Amino acid sequence: MIDDPDSIMKCNNKVYTAELLARHNIPTPKTLVVHRDNVQRIIPELALPCVLKQPDSSFSVGVVKVESEAELYDKGYALLEKSELIIAQEYLPSAFDWRVGIIDRRPLFAARYYMAPGHWQIIRHDHHGRYVEGPTEAVSLGETPVEVVELALRAANLFGDGFYGVDIKQVGNRCYVIEVNDNPNVDAGNEDGVLKDALYREVMGVFVRRIDERKRGGSQ
């Protein structure tokens, strides 16, 4: 684990993330921080369908798409039973999301995360706790759109100098940050598909450099 506790807490709080990205003019889907007294603003401001997220949602759990006013109030208030604040976002359909890995304020890898078959998310969960994931396609940084890499770097740098996975939707010629994840997955045959062992060497190199820096700092 490379990220510091402060960085991890920030990434795991979707409300904080939404406010931080907005404050620094990072493009995201239209977003509203929702509490019990402003649920009625969602449809006029975001339209339907839209996406609701728990502040601590991850791996597509705690994230729902609502398509009707009745479903919005039903699922929205259900989420508000668990948290005083939730996030509502404009729904932007796409065949895949970009994932850009950023480490030590530098881009490391890129991949396309395709939606699960017949689903609007990368991971599709069922009521039995099972899940199906869409395929992952590693892409070289040189073949990744420059605007995607630059936006990922801008977003990640707001959180620190650790290891982040920035999820970006590209809709037409516009890019939107969906999430910034701390300590992102790097799975054999997926994210490492282009760099292979060089990806792991780079991550371990950052570990080693930081350990050395702490040792030198502690001995002074």
UniProtKB/TrEMBL annotation:
Gene3D superfamilies: ATP-grasp fold, A domain, ATP-grasp fold, B domain. InterPro entries: ATP-grasp, ATP-grasp_RimK-type, ATP_grasp_subdomain_1. Residues 18-212 form the ATP-grasp domain. GO terms for molecular function: ATP binding; metal ion binding; ribosomal S6-glutamic acid ligase activity. One of its GO terms (biological process) is SOS response. Transmembrane segments: none annotated. Pfam families: RimK. Keywords: Ligase, Ribonucleoprotein, Ribosomal protein. GO terms for cellular component: cytoplasm; ribosome. This is Ribosomal protein S6--L-glutamate ligase. It comes from mine drainage metagenome. The gene is rimK.
